[in-house]
């Protein structure tokens, strides 16, 4: 893709680690100026036990050929987000990847069994932050821009925990809603999911590094189909450089499908396809993997909304 995004300005909200860092680096690789936001700075990590910072991400962006700019911002605070976009000015690409809830998801517990304060904090961090960021960022986006909501999964299935499922499906719907509201401004909005992400947190969880990550397949065979954060980042960079991206407006896409469409490879030259692995090795799971397609979007995906009194319902 060379420097297909040279001259473009991007904001990656939640760029400290994981997919956010990979996306920021890939946008820089394509020549963009990337504002890398988050709460973690040297000596003040927002996630216990994690050393990554937004300044490290910005340095990686610059090293790959872009221009990285680190801006500390707590996206739950409207004043800080407003100040962020005052600094950014006009820009072209907004990636909402704010999460920060790894230590809040209570796997194995039902809604009525969880710590409700942790649950409500998940909504604050993973839903409200996206709304606040879009509220202040969208007025400054240039025509032809792209909004990307980062989610988990492109299908209609239960994600193993009520609140995790709620927040990850909500941001898919956010992309659809924004696609409707931004049409007249020539800005497109999509949701994107990585596959099995080989993030810093996941490597640590399995007790491996990027150098020996395959050792984790002894515990989790599906990890063999995992991908680095750079993979989904390169897919998003390809989306942002696509002159015909409007054909994808409002939908959710998986990294493995985008990689096939755009000819994108991971850092090691491979092209992971998590869903294909699931089809081959977990067919019962794959059978319930109902894609969010025209059947799901239905009427609202095809017909402009009409308010009551304008011929609408």
Helix content: 25-40%
Biggest sheet features: 7 strands, parallel
Total count of helical runs of at least 4 residues: 11
Beta-strand content? 5-15%
> Which structural category fits the helices and strands?
alpha/beta
Provide the residue-averaged pLDDT: 89
As residue ranges, the low-confidence spans are 298-313
Taken together, the total number of domains comes to 1
Q: What's the end-to-end separation, in Å?
A: 46 Å
* CATH class wording: Alpha Beta
Radius of gyration: 19 Å
Tell me about this structure.
- This protein is an alpha/beta fold and 313 residues long.
- It has a single domain, classed as NAD(P)-binding Rossmann-like Domain (Rossmann fold), CATH 3.40.50.720.
- The chain contains eleven helices and seven strands.
- Strands 3-2-1-4-5-6-7 form a seven-stranded parallel sheet, sandwiched between helices.
- Strand 1, helix 1 and strand 2 form a beta-alpha-beta unit.
- Helix 1 crosses helix 7, helix 3 runs parallel beside helix 4 and helix 7 packs across helix 8.
- It is globular and about 45 Å long.
- The relative contact order is 0.13.
Summarize the structure.
The protein is built from eleven helices and seven strands. It is of the alpha/beta class and 313 residues long. It has a single domain (9-302), classed as 3-Layer(aba) Sandwich (Rossmann fold), CATH 3.40.50.
Features:
single chain, seven-stranded parallel sheet, alpha/beta, Rossmann fold, 11 helices, globular, 313 residues
């Amino acid at each position: 893709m060379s420097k297909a995004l040279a001259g473009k300005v991007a904001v990656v909200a939640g760029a400290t680690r994981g997919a956010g860092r990979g996306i920021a680096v890939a946008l820089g690789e394509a020549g963009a100026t990337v504002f890398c936001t988050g709460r973690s700075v040297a000596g003040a990590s927002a996630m216990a036990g994690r050393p990554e910072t937004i300044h490290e991400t910005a340095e990686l962006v610059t090293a790959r050929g872009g221009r990285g700019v680190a801006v500390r911002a707590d996206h739950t605070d409207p004043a800080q987000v407003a100040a962020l976009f005052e600094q950014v000015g006009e820009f072209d690409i907004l990636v909402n990847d704010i999460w920060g809830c790894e230590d809040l998801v209570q796997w194995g517990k039902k809604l009525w069994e969880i710590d409700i304060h942790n649950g409500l904090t998940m909504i604050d961090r993973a839903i409200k932050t996206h709304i606040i960021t879009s509220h202040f960022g969208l007025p400054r986006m240039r025509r032809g821009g792209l909004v990307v909501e980062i989610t988990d999964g492109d299908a209609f299935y239960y994600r193993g925990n009520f609140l995790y499922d709620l927040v990850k499906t909500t941001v898919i719907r956010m992309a659809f809603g924004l696609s409707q509201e931004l049409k007249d401004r020539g800005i497109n909005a999509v949701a994107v999911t990585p596959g099995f992400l080989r993030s810093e947190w996941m490597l640590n969880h399995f007790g491996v590094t990027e150098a020996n990550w395959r050792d984790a397949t002894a515990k989790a065979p599906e990890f063999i189909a995992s991908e680095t954060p750079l993979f989904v980042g390169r897919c998003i960079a390809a989306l942002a450089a696509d002159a015909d991206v409007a054909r994808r407006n409002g939908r959710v896409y998986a990294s493995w499908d985008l990689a096939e469409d755009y000819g994108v490879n991971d850092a090691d030259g491979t092209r992971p396809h998590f869903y294909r692995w699931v089809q081959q090795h977990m067919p019962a799971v794959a059978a319930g993997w109902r894609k969010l397609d025209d059947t799901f979007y239905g009427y609202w995906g095809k017909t402009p909304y009409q308010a009551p009194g304008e011929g609408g319902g």
